[in-house]
Amino acid sequence: MNPIISISALIAPILLAGGLTLKIKINQVNLRLLLAFSAAYLFTLSIIHLLPSAFQLGSTKQIGIFIVFGFCLQLLIDTFSTGIEHGHIHLHSSECKNKLPRGIIVGLLLHSFLEGLPIYIPSSNLSNSFNQQLILGLALHNIPITIAFTALLKEHESSNSKKWTLLFLFSIMAPLGYLSSYLLQTYGLKNYQLYSQIAFAMVIGIFLHISTAILFETSEHHKYNKTKVLMMACGIVLAYLIS
Q: Nearest Cα to 6, choosing from 136, 199, 172?
């Protein structure tokens, strides 16, 4: 995959979804359906592609430990972001209008940066140095997150330029994660292979946390209607076909 196309695939969905949400109000039912689709896709991608690839990189026990660490790290990030990574929107109009919730923003940006770390795959050919399945997973994953994030920004009475600045900052965090890994490899980080294994395993843990949280929380009273089940099935099939 061409580097420009790869990075554009990470940035464009966020800016497009953010711009659309700034102009129109997104129906919460449709957002839940989109979340269900992306969660099923992420979960399936993690199980049938990312996990096998991770366990080929190194010690099974070591990889497993860092998967658990990534899962727990996302739990910690959730305390700051209030779960916006899996579509939670906690709107408190009077508070949001007076003060933009910085904890949510910092948590979301950190989450996105960490997800970008394992995108880089050491290769002699720059165009082959991207984890394409992970890029597609992040592109789908970021659309409902962006909708939730933009809905929160709309509650804050600030200029459109500030809203767009925050959306742009969010959009470049995963590419910055990729760039960080690329620079560490290029300028000779000692034991880069171990770093790559840790980053990859942590992101799997993050994905597993987010996808399972969405799948369990998407339903009302632990019941799934036919439309949600269909969206989940579509996510599973797409992940299978791409992987």
A: 136
Nearest alpha-carbon partner for 238 in 27, 36, 81: 36
pLDDT tens digits for 191-212?
777 888 888 899 999 999 988 8
In this structure, how many other beta carbons lie within 10 angstroms of the beta carbon of residue 217? 17
- The percent helix, strand, coil of the chain (3-state, each to 5) is 80, 0, 15
- Residue 186 tokens, joined: 């290029």
Any idea which residue has 């996105």 for tokens? 112
Q: SS3 of 120, please?
A: strand
**Which of 59-73, 95-109, 227-241 has the least mean pLDDT?**
95-109
Higher pLDDT: 27 or 113? It is 113
Q: Which residue has the tokens 């394409």?
A: 132
- Please report which residue ranges of 187-225 form alpha helices under DSSP H: 192-217
Residues ≥6 apart with Cβ < 8 Å to 189: 195
- Is it the case that residue 99 has pLDDT exceeding 80? no
Contact assessment for residue 170 and residue 138, using Cβ atoms and an 8 Å cutoff:
no
Phi then psi for residue 190, to 5 deg, are -65, 135
The sign of the dihedral angle between the CA atoms of 22, 15, 196, 41 is positive
Token pair, residue 129, equals 């140095």
